[in-house]
Design brief:
This protein has 212 residues and is mainly alpha-helical. It contains nine helices and no strands. Helix 2 packs across helix 7 and helix 3 (38-70) packs parallel to helix 5.
């Protein structure tokens, strides 16, 4: 596969893998749309996407800088990255099952988020505070850079693909408003999106494991 196409596919998988789980932030995006307007919900959703893109960029830059250093340990580091991704996938499923059994979920205060700009800024900050996101991208890039490092162009394609994938999903969530949002935010909906996301993360792990 062409390196640029491979970077594009990897970025799309990574972006959807991190964006699809329907957790507290997604509930907030849906609630904002239902309570205010699509523009406000879209602003909140794009805040999530930008945070994902920023973390992907940080991981790529850090991985690129370390590429020559970590090359001698490429094999073990790739296995470590695969293990981390599989643990994240497992954790996503376990949390979703617990929430499904408990029939409850965390709530977020959305008071005051009445404009697209405010919603964007607040949700961007909330998403950046999630340590799982940087761990996810860090593991993914660490494994990739240890075996087949991104060129600057491919790194840019990867980050752009992550941003596009995350943004497209968040806009779907915002657009769903109170209709599809109620389905996705239900216990079964959360469990289903968690399983889909975990499957994508496992696919990424397998791609790393089988990379040349």
């Amino acid at each position: 596969m062409n390196a640029s196409v491979d970077a594009l596919v990897a970025g799309l998988l990574a972006g959807y893998g991190v964006a699809i789980p329907f957790g507290a932030i997604s509930v907030l995006v849906v609630a904002l749309t239902a309570r205010t307007s699509f523009r406000v919900g879209a602003g909140a959703g794009l805040g999530v996407a930008v945070a994902d893109g920023l973390y992907a960029g940080v991981a790529v830059v850090g991985g690129t800088a370390l590429a020559t250093v970590i090359e001698p340990a490429a094999g073990p580091l790739r296995l470590l990255a695969v293990a981390i991704l599989l643990l994240l996938a497992t954790g996503t499923v376990v949390r979703a099952i617990r929430q499904h059994r408990g029939r409850s979920g965390p709530a977020r205060d959305d008071r005051g988020l009445t404009t697209p700009g405010r919603a964007f800024g607040a949700v961007l900050a909330l998403t950046l505070l999630n340590p799982t996101t940087i761990l996810y991208f860090g593991a993914l890039i660490l494994g990739r850079q240890a075996s087949a490092p991104f060129t600057p162009t491919d790194a840019g394609i990867f980050v752009a693909a992550v941003l596009a994938a995350s943004a497209s999903w968040q806009l779907v969530v915002a657009g769903s408003g109170s209709l599809l949002g109620r389905v996705l935010a239900s216990p079964r909906g959360r469990l289903g999106t968690a399983l889909v996301s975990s499957a994508l993360i496992v696919l990424l792990a397998l791609r790393l494991l089988l990379a040349d």
